[in-house]
Structures are given as C-alpha cells and as structure tokens.
TrEMBL record, chains A, B:
Substrate binds at residue 337. It comes from Caldicoprobacter faecalis. The keyword Mitochondrion does not apply. This is L-aspartate aminotransferase apoenzyme /phosphoserine aminotransferase apoenzyme. The keyword Repeat does not apply.
Length: 382, 382
C-alpha cells in the first residue's frame, strides 16, 4: 500500500483537507458580492498575519513575480540599492534589480551563515553606501536553511531614507514578521509555503513610505502596477481577473492560521526545528547552517563522508513516500534539506526522521535505529 | 431550493466536475516525474488546441499578464507597433504598449464592429505604417461581442517584417485559431474562458520569428522573461514554481477538449451563438454587434427602449441564479452580454433564454412567453 506523498520540502507544502475541498467547488464570478466576501476575509486575515495596518496586495504569480513587482514598483532606472544575499533567493534579488537597470550593491554572506546587521550598517555609513534607496533581504533562505535577523536589520535601517524590502515568501505565517513594528516597507509572501496553500498567489504589503516611492517610480509595468491594485483594493476587488479558487482557499487557510494563533504557530515551527536538529545531531550528522542562524522552517544537513545523500533522499522518496530536497547550485549532492513548514506536526517530523534513519542504514551509514526518533521525540512538545 | 449559479459570462466560466475534482487532490511537488507527466500532457494538448508546432509557454498570471509578457518580450523602447482596437481589450493593448515606451499607432474600430483587414493593409502600406514591428489584434472582443477576422488579417500581414500578436484569451478552445497556418507569431490564451479552467494561468505560443525578436528585445523583464521559460520547457519544467493544481486541472480539461474534438467544439459554439441570436431576435430585441462580426462565444444585446437592462440581469441572477454581464465603460446600462463559451450546452442556453424571457416580463417588456426558447430550440442541434 502507498500512502500519499508527504512533502517535507521548502514548498509546495501539504494542504489541509478543509482548504483543498474549497478548490473543488464550482467556480464563482469574481465581480460578485459572494466573491467579495472571501476577498475581504482574505485581506483581513493577511493584515493580521503580516502584522500590518497597511494594505496587502494579492498578485496572481509565483513568489518571484512578487519580488519583481516590488522592484518594478518602488524604483527607477539607476537607483542605488543594496541586496543582502545569503543564498539562491538573495541572488535572485540581485538578478532582478540588475535586469531592471538599478545600481546594485551586494553584500554576499557565506552560504550557511546569516547576515550581520552591523555589517549592513557599516556599508550604509560608508561612501559606497551613500544614497542607497532600498535594502533587500531574504527572511528565510531556503537554499541554505538560514533565517536572517529581520528585526535586527530593521533597527539599523530605522531613520534612513531607504526602503526595507523583505522576501518572506517562505516564512510568512511560519515565523514572526512584525511588518509595521520592524519598519519593513514591503514584505513579499508566497501562497505555497507556510500559508498552506497551492502555488499561484504572491502577497505584498506596502508601507506609506513605499507608496510615496511607488508614485514616483519610472520603471515600466502594467500587470504588476501597484497603483492599479491599490485603487481596486479600495473597491474590494482586483484590477485583473484574480485566481478565484486560490483566493477562496486562502480565506479558509487564513481562518485556520488565526484559529491556531500566530504565537502557537511560531512556537510549533520553532519546536519542530529544534527537534529536527536534535535528531540530526543524535544521528551523528552535521548541520549545514550555522546554528545561530538556523531557520525554524527548514533544516539543512551535510552529506556525511562517503555517503551519497541524494541516494538517501531517493530511498526516502521511493520507498517511504517522504519527499525532502537536495542542495542547489554548488551545494548539489552536498546537503539534504528537510522542510518543516505549514501543515506539519510532530508525527510528520517523526515519520521523516524514521525514514531518514532507515534510508541512511540502507546506504551503509552506521547508526542505532531509533536514535534520531528518540532525540526528536524528547524535544517535541506533543 | 437554490441551484448552483450558472455562469453565462465572458469568464470565469463553468468548470467540469472532472476538472474540479483534480483541484482538491493533495498537492504534489513540481520538481518530480509525477508532475512532469501532467506538464508534458498539458503542453502536448496546448499545441494541438493552438494548432502550432511551436512551444506554448505557461505563465502563472491572468490573461493581462500574458498580454504584457508578449509586449515586454518582443519589443524594445521606441519600436513602432500598431494596435487594432475593437473595444476594452484592444484598448488594453494600447495601454500596455504605451506604458512600455513603444511608438503606438492605433486603428480604432467603432465598438460593435470588427476590424477590416483591408484597412490594416492600407495603414501598413502608408507612410505612417512604415516600419511597424508588431500588429496587435483581439480575437474575441468580449466587451462588444465581436470576433475579428484573424485569418484575414493574417493574410494582409503575410510576408511583412512585423510580428502578428493575437489576444485569444477568451477564444482559444472555443473558436478556430490556426496559429501556424494563419501566420500568428504570438497567441495569448487564458485558462478561465473556453478552456474550462479556473483563472490563474496564461498561455502564450511563440513562433520562430518571434523568438528572433525576443532575443533582441531590450525591455526589462524577469518574471515574464520568455527565454527562461523556453530553457525550462526544454527540461519539461518552469523557471519558477508554477500553479501545480491548475496545471493538473489543465491537463484534464485539455483531455476533455481533445476527446470532444476541436471541430465539434467550434461547431457547438457556433450553434449556441446562432441559437442565442435567433432567440434574441424572436423576442424583438436588438443585437449590439454587427452580425457580420458576431462572436460565437458571446452575444451582446441592446437594452430595449424604456427597459432597465441591468434590472433584467439582476432578476436573472437573484431569482433564477443565472449570471450574465452588463456593458463596460460607455456601454454601461446600454447592453447585456450573454457568454456561451466553454462548458456550456444547449440546455444551459435554453435555461438562460427562459430566465431572460421571465425577467424581461417582470420589468414590463412585452413578449409572448416561449418565443425566445422556441426560436433557440429550433436552431439548436441537440
């Protein structure tokens, strides 16, 4: 017998049945009171999860579309910006800002480490940092398993004449993001990560300060033009046909999130991460990410000497129907990444660790069966 | 008792149960062989419906995103283009091309009429038409109920050094579009119209000639960059996380389309349109669109003297649970539009005409009950 595949990946992530069943309903028209009720409920829920008083815009796109939209809306050709890159998704901001003709400065943090707010401060205070109009940071860098100190970076940016733009695509709804309190001007989130939805929607919060920049932006855009979205949002609608099924699903998923409570959700994710790391270490494996910056949503594990980590993943996937992911770019074959975000509980993690133990044994790694599971179980608050 | 709302609108349109049930399945990861099978099946189906040998790209966006993508990929600032506008969606091409800094010439066709290929030829042969690098045409102009002669326009464009770009967002899968044979360089389609899917995906076919232009384009884009989509398509994947649920649904809907057969589908739509027009005329109502250009997918009806057409729509919607749409912009309150595209059969149309008769009576319009239904029934091939 085969169970449904358990996705322990950095997205797409598992979707609760309550959310999925909304997707099978007959479609409704998006210019109706009935749809408006879902849209308003989603928008109210989003504001709570983003912890903002400002509007949160909903785009039909992947998270990358949300990243591009932030760039295209808030800047003009030649604007100097700083990208703090800690991995693949930080680098994506470098690519997008470069493509759009901005003057791009980059702080490259070694992969596996998190950004140091002091280093950012130093850069901005230096002649090279003079006139920076935007600072881009990835919250949860899924390629390495690192979470950046978004609050701390916000502190060094406070009072500066630049926009603070955070890619929280995978973290929003799983780790704390205090958008307003931390002074973030744009937070970008994706549907298919901690928010327990299928892929297809990107959400972007926009501060008053960002709106001022948007009104002056000279980069061409039409589909992603935030001014059109703001105008429509005031009428509780979207400028173009939105993904009706996904919006209805989102209103349901946000209900579940707010029912569990943000604090409880953050605690659950933190505990899952602690348990995962405890298991990894008990099995004699090495963590890839510096533990000071370890993400609550994804754990990266170094391939042990002489072990084909991709083979381990393959066995987990084909024999035990648990999908985890490998390394990207130069980390290919060198790490394994276990996602524990969204609709994931302690049993899911224990199942994953069990499969990891069994699969490691099959490729010749020495361990005493149950070591990882026991360590996880002792750490889990279940 | 209330039945589910019947959408007789220009989209979103009704979705078959077989398609909807795929949306409720647990999510699968997009970088897997299992997903690849759906993606490949969708792509093969799309090529058949587009009637092209060239790749069809899948974007997570509304149709408008597809329109912008066509503009941003194939042109550079200052390029001269011609937009043939027959309504709201033609005007949207004017807005997008203008926003992206192109040198935009416009042929404005009176609303309710279709474009005359000879007029386009004359323009292109005139000094003003010299050096036009792209011609944009809407196939099915849902705002007026007009279908443009895409084949005929293709003939006057043949041999010219300009790209032929067709918005077939609402028509593809409902009316014939012979992409390759008619020499169309880019055809843009949307998921939520004749293709019987929820909104959220745009599809764009790209000819060899268009690829050459794309390689030279200097407009900034990242999320919609077709070169990235082409590269990924060669590996049977997408550059960014695609809308997994919608792709799976699309592979199912395309199966249904190909099973019914394109010729049968086109004949069904044409017959529905003929029956709808027969009913409208039998009821003494006036068609808005010039019958020479009447769309097979949507019928626009003029408000009779002294009749509040929006009130008629309201009764159809609230009392009979059938949704049709009103006029846009200067046609607000002046016309009603009945969509008959996608998952619509003769019974759906008869139901709509019945509700139209009953609602017209309620607002004081004189008619003999059954006149429209009988005319439709006599025309329908059921």
């Amino acid at each position: 017998m085969r169970k449904d595949k358990l996705l322990m990946t950095p997205g797409p992530t598992m979707i609760p049945h309550k959310v999925r069943e909304t997707m099978a309903r007959q479609i409704i028209h998006h210019r109706t009171k009935e749809f408006e009720r879902y849209f308003v409920k989603m928008n109210e829920g989003l504001k709570k999860v983003f912890q903002t008083q400002n509007p949160v815009l909903t785009l039909v796109s992947s998270g990358t579309g949300g990243m591009e939209a932030a760039v295209a809306n808030a800047f003009s050709p030649g604007d100097k910006v700083l990208v703090v890159s800690t991995g693949v998704f930080g680098d994506r901001f470098v690519k997008i800002t470069t493509r759009f003709g901005l003057d791009v400065k980059v702080i490259n943090v070694p992969w596996g480490c998190g950004a140091d707010p002091e280093e950012i401060k130093k850069f901005l205070d230096s002649p090279e940092g003079d006139g920076v109009k935007g600072v881009f940071v990835t919250h949860n860098e899924t390629s390495t398993g690192v979470a950046n100190d978004i609050k701390g970076i916000g502190e060094v940016l406070k009072g500066r004449d630049c926009l603070y733009i955070v890619d929280a695509i995978s973290s929003l709804g799983g780790m704390e993001v205090k958008t307003d309190e931390w002074g973030i001007d744009m937070v970008i989130a994706g549907s298919q990560k901690a928010l327990m939805l299928p892929p297809g929607l990107a959400f972007v919060s926009v501060s008053e300060k960002a709106w001022k920049a948007i009104e002056k932006s000279k980069l061409p855009k039409f589909y992603f033009d935030f001014l059109a979205y703001r105008k429509s949002l005031n009428d509780n609608t979207t400028p173009y046909t939105t993904a009706v099924s996904l919006v209805i699903a989102a209103s349901e998923a946000l209900d579940m999130i707010l029912e569990e409570g943000l604090e409880n959700i953050f605690a659950r994710h933190r505990n899952l991460a602690e348990a995962c790391r405890a298991a990894v270490k008990a099995l004699g494996l090495e963590l890839f990410a510096d533990e000071r910056y370890a993400s609550d949503l994804i754990t990266s594990i170094k391939a042990p000497e002489g072990i084909d980590i991709d083979q381990v993943r393959k066995i987990m996937n084909l024999q035990y129907d648990i999908m985890v992911t490998g390394g990207q770019q130069h980390l290919k074959g060198k790490i394994m990444r276990i996602g524990h975000m969204g609709y994931v509980d302690g049993f899911d993690l224990l199942k994953t660790i069990t499969a990891l133990e069994l699969s490691l044994l099959k490729v010749g790694y020495k361990l005493e069966l149950g070591t990882g599971v026991t360590a996880a179980l002792k750490t889990l608050k279940m």
